[in-house]
Amino acid sequence: MNITIDRQKGSKTNVLGNERHSDKKTKISVSDLNLFYGEKQALYSVSLDIKEKEVTAFIGPSGCGKSTFLRTLNRMNDLIDSVKISGKVIIDNENIYESSDVIKLRTKVGMVFQKANLFPMSIYDNVAYGPRMHGIKNKKELNKIVEESLRGAAIWDEVKDRLKTSALGLSGGQQQRVCIARAIAMKPDVILMDEPTSALDPISTLKVEELITQMKKDYTIIIVTHNMQQAARISDKTAFFLNGEVVEYSSTDKLFSVPQDKRTEDYITGRFG
Ligand SMILES: Nc1ncnc2c1ncn2[C@@H]1O[C@H](COP(=O)(O)OP(=O)(O)OP(=O)(O)O)[C@@H](O)[C@H]1O
């Protein structure tokens, strides 16, 4: 496969991968992270830093640990009994595995899944759900959060006249943007996205990609994708995973134009995976 780097406006790196804006703060620092499902090791000594207000993409063949790693960043793997984790994940100077406040963590680090998973309720109630659970009852305040979140997810104009109708009546692409609005409503710093466009048609995919590019001015975004063109289009940094290890991690331009590792080159040129 030939990867053409078709960067959208706002690219922060040049072709050689030299950062033009290297002043960004590290938001997440992962060191020596190992993860086991029972006896089976799924992540091997993963260490990487993620900068704030950038888009970071994880690519790699099926089963290489991308989603597992993504889920370590807001402790979603805690929900699986057999999981054992060692190593550190530091977000804003705090090791998230040493803090007991998982609810606070998942508010700060929101998540959008592969398939839109809206509740069978109105568009309004879907977006207001999280804030209500956090005790916000004031109607005016909720209206403001719902509008701001839907605007932030670039779907306000499409749904503003049908906020009280079922969210499940929207198209798949619209539903996915409402899911993004639902994540935004919790005012996170970081949004994890696990293959958010894999169930969408090309036009909806493009809308979500444009949205991600706009959102990075406010959020740190980490996306798992099978689509290398997508990683090339929207991410600032890319990590290539293989068999539970990070083989290569660099600016997206550099990784796709001058990969340093033969395995990365083989993968991005379609020799395997
Ligand atoms: N809940 C689980 N219990 C046991 N093993 C699991 C579980 N989830 C994932 N695994 C295993 O861990 C490894 C990594 O899986 P993971 O889903 O993280 O890979 P991935 O790169 O995201 O794959 P894909 O691209 O197909 O989604 C695989 O071998 C998988 O079978």
Can you put this structure into words, describing what you see?
The chain is α/β, with parallel strands linked by helices and 273 residues long. It has a domain at 26-114 and 189-268: P-loop containing nucleotide triphosphate hydrolases (Rossmann fold). The chain is built from ten helices and ten strands. The protein has helices spanning 66-72, 102-108, 123-133, 139-152, 156-159, 172-184, 202-215, 228-234, 252-257, 262-268, and strands spanning 26-37, 40-51, 55-59, 83-91, 94-95, 109-112, 190-194, 220-224, 237-242, 245-251. The strands form two sheets. Strands 6-7-8-3-9-10 form a six-stranded mixed beta sheet, sandwiched between helices. Strands 2-1-4-5 form a four-stranded antiparallel beta sheet, with helices on one face. Helix 4 crosses helix 6 and helix 6 (172-184) packs parallel to helix 7 (202-215). The longest helix is centred in the middle third of the chain and has 14 residues, at 139-152. It starts with 25 loop residues before the first strand and ends in a 5-residue tail after the last helix. The model is unreliable at 1-21 (pLDDT under 50). Residues 37, 42, 60, 62-68, 80 line the site of adenosine-5'-triphosphate (ATP).
Key attributes of the depicted protein:
273 residues, alpha/beta, Rossmann fold, six-stranded mixed beta sheet, four-stranded antiparallel beta sheet, 10 helices, globular, binds adenosine-5'-triphosphate
What is the strand content? 15-25%
> How many beta strands in the DSSP annotation?
10
The CATH superfamily of the domain at 26-114 and 189-268 is known as P-loop containing nucleotide triphosphate hydrolases
Please state the structural category.
Answer: alpha/beta
Small molecules (ligands, ions, cofactors) in the structure:
adenosine-5'-triphosphate
* Unreliable residue stretches: 1-21
Query: Roughly what percent helix?
Result: 25-40%
Number of helices: 10
Cα gyration radius (Å)? 19 Å
> Based on CA inertia axes, which overall geometry fits?
globular
Mean pLDDT: 91
Strand order of the largest sheet: 6-7-8-3-9-10
Q: Do you know the CATH topology of the domain at 26-114 and 189-268? A: Rossmann fold
H-E order? EEEHEEHEHHHHEHEHEEHH
Distance between the termini: 11 Å
Tell me, what is the CATH class of the domain at 26-114 and 189-268?
Alpha Beta
Main sheet specs? 6 strands, mixed
CATH architecture of the domain at 26-114 and 189-268: 3-Layer(aba) Sandwich
Protein name: Phosphate ABC transporter ATP-binding protein PstB
InterPro entries: AAA+_ATPase, ABC_transporter-like_ATP-bd, ABC_transporter-like_CS, P-loop_NTPase, PstB-like
Pfam family, one: ABC_tran
Keywords: ATP-binding, Nucleotide-binding, Transport
